[in-house]
């Protein structure tokens, strides 16, 4: 089973919930850190790293000897990654989406491939938690292909996989949530939290996933998030009040389930409620 | 005209609240919300909508089932797994590369331009604002970021406003790269946590990569003073200018709930610190207060 933890707004506690859920269940869990722009799960899990791989995308390299400067590849490329000038064909590898269309239309077989480094995937473990992290190279724009690479490391069928998704609602979020069984949305009861939650709910609905809500720092702000959840029929699975001890432990990078007993209890209950929500969703289908 | 972009690396550190407070201190300013994926600035600067435009970008493949011979070539070509076994294109997975549309031997694939969102021009009590809303689960956020920044720049030049204040997105990927390219300076808002520090270091690596001068401030600094000190040190050794601490104050959330800027609550310690940071940032980004 794959549970994706997402939020719309950043800084609401996605990574906190993902790491503590993973570590609090006392069973084998694979946690995929798909927030590849800012992967933070390792700061809390402090895993023993056991392996890594660099991830590249294929980008075209034009053989000037063979190229007839016909312009077919430039015409096909939707991303302006190829420019045919009067005497030379130029490529812009950082704009390439690796669709390989240029090679398909080239009559002269002038297109070969070189590689652009997108980032790194590394994996390790702490107790029964296996962590797999994607880390986008700083300066690289395209997160989705790296997220897809991280997703390939998900746990076996029947095992639990958690996904720590990036904030927002655009393509990296879709790449993180696609094919998940459940979306756990983490928000805070503020106008920014609500606005971004509405967007995240829209994205989850587009993907057709069942979902539940965690309201973090549930005693700050107002009650509009609660009302929205009720109107939309989204179950609130957990509410955590603002707590100075929690904030301090988080600031230090501690795993909350290891230092604060209420978190351990909360994570076990949260998991049960997720399973319950999934069961009733499946029954309703 | 000069542009300051407020970013953070980590989400939820207080970028938007700080931009709203700066807006009130700036007197004459153009505002730009470049966090098009989850735009929030409009919730606290009371905008009055003046213009609304569709944002068209990229194309999307659509298979005409009457023309499709189900030959399967497009399934082999598509690198994005966007075509299913029933020869339907899954819009959420389509990258808009056009390979299927260009090469289908039966000419069965249409490739219409798509509308990925909207952008707006509004009037606020602090000055005009350009903002946007990317369609849910859409692509091309980087292009939309570039568009709102270009429009905001144009507006500032037209109206003779010297300062452009841009609220940026979290992360270090495509929308952030689009937010800081050609900016005159960035301000990174960090927080005194392990994640805050890790994410600040990555985003400062990005500002160095694109050679944009960076300043750093720490929000909610008193929640963990030792961590805040380490972050200030890390910022300076990454080549950024450190411009100050902002204390934790529930008033910041209160202002958000009320849909107002922090300056509306009179003389407070949190606002005094923000004013001090604003003055330092003005010296850094705009040649003086």
UniProtKB/TrEMBL annotation, chain A:
<dbReference type="InterPro" id="IPR002586">
    <property type="entry name" value="CobQ/CobB/MinD/ParA_Nub-bd_dom"/>
</dbReference>
<dbReference type="InterPro" id="IPR017896">
    <property type="entry name" value="4Fe4S_Fe-S-bd"/>
</dbReference>
<feature type="domain" description="4Fe-4S ferredoxin-type">
    <location>
        <begin position="58"/>
        <end position="87"/>
    </location>
</feature>
<dbReference type="Pfam" id="PF01656">
    <property type="entry name" value="CbiA"/>
</dbReference>
<dbReference type="Pfam" id="PF00037">
    <property type="entry name" value="Fer4"/>
</dbReference>
<protein>
    <submittedName>
        <fullName>MinD superfamily P-loop ATPase, contains an inserted ferredoxin domain</fullName>
    </submittedName>
</protein>
<dbReference type="InterPro" id="IPR027417">
    <property type="entry name" value="P-loop_NTPase"/>
</dbReference>
From TrEMBL, chain B:
<dbReference type="GO" id="GO:0051536">
    <property type="term" value="F:iron-sulfur cluster binding"/>
</dbReference>
<keyword id="KW-0411">Iron-sulfur</keyword>
<feature type="domain" description="4Fe-4S ferredoxin-type">
    <location>
        <begin position="85"/>
        <end position="114"/>
    </location>
</feature>
<dbReference type="InterPro" id="IPR002586">
    <property type="entry name" value="CobQ/CobB/MinD/ParA_Nub-bd_dom"/>
</dbReference>
<keyword id="KW-0479">Metal-binding</keyword>
<feature type="domain" description="4Fe-4S ferredoxin-type">
    <location>
        <begin position="59"/>
        <end position="84"/>
    </location>
</feature>
<dbReference type="InterPro" id="IPR027417">
    <property type="entry name" value="P-loop_NTPase"/>
</dbReference>
<dbReference type="InterPro" id="IPR017896">
    <property type="entry name" value="4Fe4S_Fe-S-bd"/>
</dbReference>
<keyword id="KW-0408">Iron</keyword>
<dbReference type="Pfam" id="PF00037">
    <property type="entry name" value="Fer4"/>
</dbReference>
<dbReference type="Pfam" id="PF01656">
    <property type="entry name" value="CbiA"/>
</dbReference>
<protein>
    <submittedName>
        <fullName>MinD superfamily P-loop ATPase, contains an inserted ferredoxin domain</fullName>
    </submittedName>
</protein>
<dbReference type="InterPro" id="IPR017900">
    <property type="entry name" value="4Fe4S_Fe_S_CS"/>
</dbReference>
<dbReference type="GO" id="GO:0046872">
    <property type="term" value="F:metal ion binding"/>
</dbReference>
């Amino acid at each position: 089973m794959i549970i994706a933890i997402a939020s719309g707004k950043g800084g609401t506690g996605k990574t906190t919930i993902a790491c503590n859920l993973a570590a609090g269940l006392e069973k084998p869990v694979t946690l995929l850190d798909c927030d590849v722009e800012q992967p933070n799960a390792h700061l809390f899990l402090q895993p023993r790293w056991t392996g890594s791989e660099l991830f590249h995308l294929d980008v075209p390299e034009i053989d000037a000897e063979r190229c007839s400067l016909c312009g077919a590849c430039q015409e096909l490329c939707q991303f302006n990654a190829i420019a045919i000038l009067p005497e030379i064909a130029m490529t812009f590898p950082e704009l390439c989406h690796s669709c390989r269309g240029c090679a398909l239309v080239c009559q002269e077989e002038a297109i070969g491939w070189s590689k652009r480094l997108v980032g790194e995937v590394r994996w390790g473990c702490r107790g029964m938690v296996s962590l797999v992290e994607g880390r986008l190279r700083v300066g690289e724009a395209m997160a989705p292909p790296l997220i897809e690479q991280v997703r390939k490391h998900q746990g076996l069928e029947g095992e639990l996989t958690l996904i720590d998704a990036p904030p927002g609602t655009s393509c990296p979020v879709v790449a993180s949530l696609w094919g998940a069984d459940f979306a756990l949305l983490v928000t805070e009861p503020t106008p920014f939290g609500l606005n971004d939650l509405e967007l995240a709910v829209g994205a989850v609905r587009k993907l057709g996933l069942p979902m539940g809500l965690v309201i973090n720092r549930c005693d700050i702000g107002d009650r509009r998030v609660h009302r929205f959840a009720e109107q939309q029929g989204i179950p609130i699975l957990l509410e955590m009040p603002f707590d100075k001890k929690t904030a301090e432990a988080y600031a230090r990078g501690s795993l909350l389930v290891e230092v604060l007993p209420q978190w351990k209890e909360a994570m076990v209950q949260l998991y049960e409620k997720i399973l319950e929500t999934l069961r009733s969703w499946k029954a309703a289908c | 005209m000069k542009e300051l972009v407020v970013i953070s690396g980590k989400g939820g550190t207080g970028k938007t609240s700080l931009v709203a407070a700066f807006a009130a201190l700036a007197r004459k300013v153009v505002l730009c919300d470049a966090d098009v994926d989850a735009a929030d600035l409009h919730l606290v600067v009371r905008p009055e909508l003046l213009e609304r435009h569709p944002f068209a970008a990229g194309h999307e493949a659509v298979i005409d089932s009457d023309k499709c011979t189900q030959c399967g070539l497009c399934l082999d070509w598509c690198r994005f797994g966007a075509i299913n076994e029933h020869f339907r294109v899954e819009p959420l997975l389509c990258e808009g590369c056009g390979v299927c549309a260009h090469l289908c031997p039966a000419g069965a694939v249409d490739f219409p331009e798509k509308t990925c969102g909207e952008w707006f021009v509004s009037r606020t009590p602090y000055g005009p604002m350009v903002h946007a809303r990317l369609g849910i689960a859409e692509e091309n956020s980087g292009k939309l970021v570039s568009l709102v920044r270009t429009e905001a720049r144009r507006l500032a030049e037209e109206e003779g406003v010297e300062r452009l204040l841009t609220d940026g997105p979290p992360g270090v990927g495509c929308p952030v790269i689009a937010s800081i390219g050609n900016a005159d300076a960035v301000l990174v808002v960090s927080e005194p946590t392990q994640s805050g520090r890790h994410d600040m270091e990555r985003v400062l690596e990005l500002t160095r990569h694109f050679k944009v001068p960076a300043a750093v401030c720490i929000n909610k600094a008193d929640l963990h003073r030792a961590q805040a000190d380490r972050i200030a040190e890390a910022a300076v050794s990454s080549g950024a200018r450190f411009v100050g601490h902002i204390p934790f104050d529930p008033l910041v959330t209160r202002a958000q709930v009320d849909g107002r800027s922090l300056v509306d609550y009179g003389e407070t310690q949190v606002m005094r610190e923000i004013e001090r940071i604003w003055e330092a940032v003005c010296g850094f980004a705009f040649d003086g207060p």
